[in-house]
Amino acid sequence: MIVIVDERARVKEGYSSLFGREGVPSAGFGATEFGEWVSSAADEDLQAIGAFLIGECDTHPISPRMLRERTGAPVIALSEQHSLENTLRLFESGVDDVIRKPVHIREIMARIAAIRRRASDDGASTDIGSLRIFMNGKDPEINGEPLPLPRRERRILEFLASNRGRRVTKTQVFNAIYGIFDEDVEENVVESHVSKLRKKLRERLGYDPIDSKRFLGYCLNV
């Protein structure tokens, strides 16, 4: 899930629409309400955030360092001022990247993936036996052969891989895939996605790499 922070409603709505076309859930905040939400949001909700995009927030500036006290998600500044001084100022504030507008939504997604790769000790993929899981939207591979997956099943597998060694709840999976503010989809849809994913992995691997415990959630058998 991507969080967009900007004082202008049309900017938030525009980015949310573009991310939606790519199948990526998002939410938009004004600067004041964003600060209030971050300070009170549950850790479980913040874990579902893939990145923060910070736009025009002159009246209530956002502190990237404050965000890092709660989450490790990339913080990217969207800049409309094409000057070296402004770019340096934004980097000095603590953002992970500065993107000059206009920019294609796929470039933003690629930059988010690159930041996350650099921050990961394990690089751009996770290997579990013959299963290789990529963190950039690419289909997983089994013995070097691609395993085509629907978008949400692939993202569930990526989310489990990014939390390998830890068990994640159904709510955490739902928030990461659908967004924490989506009230139009029932949380139980996660069970259907995971069931289909496990069946496909089991058919190709010969075993089930996803451990599921009722009330406790899911984890990858690393």
TrEMBL record:
GO biological process, one term: regulation of DNA-templated transcription
UniProt KW keywords: DNA-binding, Transcription, Transcription regulation
DNA-binding region: 123-222
GO molecular function annotation: phosphorelay response regulator activity; transcription cis-regulatory region binding
Recorded coiled-coil stretches: none
InterPro entries: CheY-like_superfamily, OmpR/PhoB-type_DNA-bd, Sig_transdc_resp-reg_C-effctor, Sig_transdc_resp-reg_receiver, WalR-like, WH-like_DNA-bd_sf
Domain OmpR/PhoB-type: 123-222
Occurrences of domain Response regulatory (ranges): 1-116
Pfam families xrefs: Trans_reg_C
Record GO cellular component, one term: protein-DNA complex
Protein name, as recorded: Two-component system response regulator
Organism annotation: Aquibium oceanicum
